[in-house]
Amino acid sequence: MIVEEFFEDYRIGFSRRTMGRTITEADIVLHAGQTGDFFPHHMDAHWCATQDFKRRIAHGTLIFSVGIGMTASTINPRAMSYGYDRLRFVRPVFIGDTISVSATITEKRDHPKRKTHGIAVEAIEIRNQDAETVLVCEHLYLVERRTPAET
Amino acid sequence: MIVEEFFEDYRIGFSRRTMGRTITEADIVLHAGQTGDFFPHHMDAHWCATQDFKRRIAHGTLIFSVGIGMTASTINPRAMSYGYDRLRFVRPVFIGDTISVSATITEKRDHPKRKTHGIAVEAIEIRNQDAETVLVCEHLYLVERRTPAET
Amino acid sequence: MIVEEFFEDYRIGFSRRTMGRTITEADIVLHAGQTGDFFPHHMDAHWCATQDFKRRIAHGTLIFSVGIGMTASTINPRAMSYGYDRLRFVRPVFIGDTISVSATITEKRDHPKRKTHGIAVEAIEIRNQDAETVLVCEHLYLVERRTPAET
Amino acid sequence: MIVEEFFEDYRIGFSRRTMGRTITEADIVLHAGQTGDFFPHHMDAHWCATQDFKRRIAHGTLIFSVGIGMTASTINPRAMSYGYDRLRFVRPVFIGDTISVSATITEKRDHPKRKTHGIAVEAIEIRNQDAETVLVCEHLYLVERRTPAET
Amino acid sequence: MIVEEFFEDYRIGFSRRTMGRTITEADIVLHAGQTGDFFPHHMDAHWCATQDFKRRIAHGTLIFSVGIGMTASTINPRAMSYGYDRLRFVRPVFIGDTISVSATITEKRDHPKRKTHGIAVEAIEIRNQDAETVLVCEHLYLVERRTPAET
Amino acid sequence: MIVEEFFEDYRIGFSRRTMGRTITEADIVLHAGQTGDFFPHHMDAHWCATQDFKRRIAHGTLIFSVGIGMTASTINPRAMSYGYDRLRFVRPVFIGDTISVSATITEKRDHPKRKTHGIAVEAIEIRNQDAETVLVCEHLYLVERRTPAET
């Protein structure tokens, strides 16, 4: 779906929530295969059984990539992804956990250099099936202004 | 390879560099499949040809995940990934571009609460075959101290 | 996105259109891998060059599956997929072709046995980048009625 | 294997049966990834547990594609897939179910326009490990005639 | 297809030949992902361009696995794969090359210990589209005897 | 990691050992998809339950490819893979088994023709979590000599 929104249209506090997705053993195998990260924390069930966390753990970049992908539902031709701040792995995600994502606009900033654009900050929170937070970050969007900022 | 290093062992300025990896159309197809992000910027060559960038662009989360995976060569049993700061998409990556990663320890911080651990910051820079920076971020590691920090 | 609609809410003539997606060599390789169909029409570029169509052809089930997947954007808790009629492969799809899908409600029928449900027919048309039809079918949905049908 | 058969060679009642294949969680993850259909019916085990069917369900297009792929064992250079009729999802397929396919030639028709070809109809029936039918359809083949049809 | 054959039924000189399959960039990406071998010879087009062979090379284990898979067309319930001898990489395989396989029974041996079985040797030769040999090996099958061997 | 070693630098008895990796159902599904080998021994859990081994077995080429991939940790620009001898499948590998690999230089040979190179033999042994050998082979490397061999 395409929804055109200028920087002026973003409302602080606007919030959305995705459906859930279960993280499977296949996801971890595919992510190891895509990234080349075959660390035993993700790939060796036998060794993991000897560790504190007992079970294989999903890659942090897997949960981040899937969670961000789950929020990619609407295209805004006036916005582009600028980066991420304060990405933190709060709890491990295990095989069989089901994650869902909430995203809330928390801040609007001037761009340090461009008057034609602003930066919208969307707080991302990924939770598991027990409503525990597993990952947080801030997604920064570079958004075109309808009217350039004044000096 | 397993190399045990305590927080005290980390040296600011220590730098390493990965080999290269070409980002392929297959990588983008697989990443769309893993994340569910089928935005036309990544998947619709026909539409992309009408846009400023002319060609399909790799997902930001793909370049980030692959780049971080490329740095996952040595396991330190005393460290774990804590999160990322200031992740920025500096330039687009196109099909056929070859990326490599440099990683440099730039900072060591006390952990705000735990005296038993410190935070080591590794600056990550992903470049393409023309030595242009495409992505930067700071990778934070939570690292055990050999000796707890004093108050 | 979840949108609840009963059989009575379906409007004949309601139409929607997806964004585009380029069919890649990777898609064909993955589909062969999923289905086990490694026929040379899809997998042997050397042999294909000696045939009338000159190039590898996407599997019919690939174009069908991807096209139907592209229409799976909104969940209606009152409807479920019942089947398909008159699925026809009108033109081959080659590597690099970009397909998009239009879907139009064309008919509403009583269910032969259940008074609590009706059948809604959605005509699916998949086209390539030259607006040529490559695949058509009718997607049948079993949809709950708000009020059971009279005898 | 290549076996050349003209339309005249097709025998109504000719039947064949495939070996079995277990539908795995990985198949569903890969099919979601190929089609972009991440509906919770297939991907969210936690939500599925609250529904009537209790467990994740394989995509209809997955079972159809795999089942048809399982029948793609012999190449007939005189035939090509023309389309499908009356595709119906009779029962859900769950992770761990093992499907097999029977295929029987049930009808031979003149082509509405071409005298050089006929249409052979192969009834496809996919069953699970309990011999319950899960999917049926009619596969239509366009088959060259050894001798053109008379008017 | 299932064809039951005892050791006595194997005929030296019996030969079969597969259809062709084009080795794609996607195959190499998937094989790297499955095996964890991301060596630049397979993954870094930029670096390969500076080497003698100029282009990315398929993994030896990829060509071997695909070639052996291409010969896995008939199941003999009386035989099982015992191992391989004299596997040699004769020429590199590049992206876009089309391989096919010939397999010929060249030898029948007593099993060193079991009188109930013999060892059948099938010479495997994988060639590219220019009929150049790229890989050879001997595939050893452990095959049940109809009648145990005499002392 | 790149470590340059000439033939003269290889030491008989030098041994290394990899970390472990659990073989998953997803690995088998992906390997079937890559090779086209959908034999019921690997893919049909229902049929396997009626056989002596009771459970699905990993493809021999999967265990070989993964095991060899696990040893591909250091690049030696003076060596290349020449082939394999005496590859034997000693025990089946089941879903959930965790394999690790030991590799030991056991022999150094003159090359039959080239005085500029020698052949180094590395004995590969793949074991499961119970320290049982599942696969052995000899990996032959063609390695450049610092000084050509005398006649």
TrEMBL record, chains A, B, C, D, E, F:
Upper lineage: Bacteria, Pseudomonadati, Pseudomonadota, Alphaproteobacteria, Rhodospirillales
Highest taxon of the lineage: Bacteria
Pfam families recorded: MaoC_dehydratas
Organism, as annotated: Skermanella stibiiresistens SB22
Protein name: MaoC family dehydratase
Alphabetized Gene3D superfamilies for the sequence: Hotdog Thioesterase
SUPFAM superfamilies linked to this entry: Thioesterase/thiol ester dehydrase-isomerase
InterPro entries (alphabetical): HotDog_dom_sf, MaoC-like_dom, MCH/BMMD
MaoC-like domain boundaries: 17-122
